[in-house]
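Quick review question:
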């Protein structure tokens, strides 16, 4: 209806209302009801009134319809929050995040690169880099320490090295501390490093069996709730078992997340098998422990370390802290649809010469995607 016609109808209603005021309150109310019904019958007006009564629409996943969308670092903050609630290295919008370090040929970290300097390939197809988080962004680190019987005589050294590790982190990093043997014991939840230095210290007690796989499973589940950049630092000899988790299941979960895992392996096995132990069983167990600690780190873009002495332990923790301060986070939206259980190969490169990138080389699409 033209605006002029609508105005005439409103003026007519006003005249009707004024003419019936003297007839009493009942007539006035009746006229008002008639006016409302009359207005509701006008095309566009009634629809507008009803529209305001409707429930607000739910936001839909727009990126699934467009895989070339870009996001600014500010825009991706909210996206990353949804990602970390989903426990996969993708968010609801299929964003893939990859931690990466860049070094020159002399082993020096390069920390001033921009988005335009990176190239990402998935299954051989170049992807568009959506964003690059600067190395200054803080980390949340879960420190997972093996305090089972096999580690008992080294716990004092481990506590000293762990306290030294904390002193090398940035004050705005956050730290979760947990130990494990038969069970997982959380010493403290996510706490700013500044507060840890002011009021907390590692005090470790040993004993019990080593439910290593259950402990790693706990760490992965805990870190899926963490927003932003995150890493797990696992200290263990690598020997253990699990009641609720296994070697295979934890490696699979690690590939479905964007948390870096650094493993520090203290060798507690004798050089030769004891007389009452089958040699094949002994060497298979040693190889399995080494492989598990190595695979956890390499499949997530972290590093495995093997240490024999306290000085080696302190050096390993120092190298991890140093690297965490120099990590980039890269994000992109895959050009091909994701399918549950599918493995995708990743290659990260830089356009500048004589630089080396270290990042995870694959990921697995988690269930529910």
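Suggested answer, residue by residue:
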């Amino acid at each position: 209806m033209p605006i002029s016609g609508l105005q005439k109808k409103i003026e007519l209603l006003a005249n009707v209302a004024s003419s019936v005021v003297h007839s009493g309150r009942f007539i006035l109310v009746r006229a008002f009801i008639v006016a409302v019904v009359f207005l509701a019958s006008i095309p566009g007006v009634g629809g507008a009134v009803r529209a305001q009564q409707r429930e607000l629409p739910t936001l839909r996943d727009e990126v699934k319809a467009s895989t070339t969308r870009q996001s600014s670092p500010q825009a991706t903050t909210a996206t990353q929050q949804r990602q970390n609630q989903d426990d996969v290295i993708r968010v609801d919008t299929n964003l893939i995040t990859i931690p990466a370090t860049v070094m020159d040929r002399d082993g020096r970290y390069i920390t001033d690169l921009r988005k335009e300097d990176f190239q990402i390939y998935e299954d051989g197809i170049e992807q568009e880099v959506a964003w690059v988080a600067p190395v200054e962004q803080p980390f949340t680190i879960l420190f997972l320490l093996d305090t089972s019987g096999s580690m008992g005589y080294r716990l004092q050294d481990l506590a000293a090295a762990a306290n030294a590790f904390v002193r090398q982190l940035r004050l705005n990093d956050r730290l979760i501390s947990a130990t494990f043997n038969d069970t997982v014991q959380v010493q403290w939840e996510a706490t700013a490093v500044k507060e840890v230095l002011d009021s907390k210290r590692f005090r470790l007690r040993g004993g019990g069996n080593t439910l290593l796989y259950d402990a790693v499973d706990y760490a992965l589940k805990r870190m899926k709730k963490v927003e932003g950049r995150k890493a797990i630092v696992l200290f263990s000899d690598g020997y253990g078992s699990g009641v609720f988790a296994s070697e295979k299941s934890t490696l699979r979960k690690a590939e479905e997340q964007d948390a870096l895992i650094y493993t520090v392996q203290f060798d507690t096995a004798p050089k030769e098998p004891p007389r009452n132990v089958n040699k094949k069983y002994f060497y298979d167990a040693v190889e399995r422990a080494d492989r598990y600690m190595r695979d956890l780190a390499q499949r997530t873009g972290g590093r495995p370390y093997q240490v024999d002495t306290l000085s080696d332990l302190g050096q390993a923790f120092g190298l991890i802290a140093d690297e965490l301060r120099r990590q980039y986070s890269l994000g992109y939206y895959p050009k091909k649809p994701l399918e549950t259980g599918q493995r995708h190969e990743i290659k990260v490169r830089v356009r500048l010469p004589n630089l080396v990138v270290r990042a995870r080389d694959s990921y697995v699409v988690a269930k529910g995607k």
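Why it works: The longest strand covers residues 96-104. Confidence is low (pLDDT under 50) at residues 1-14, 16-92.
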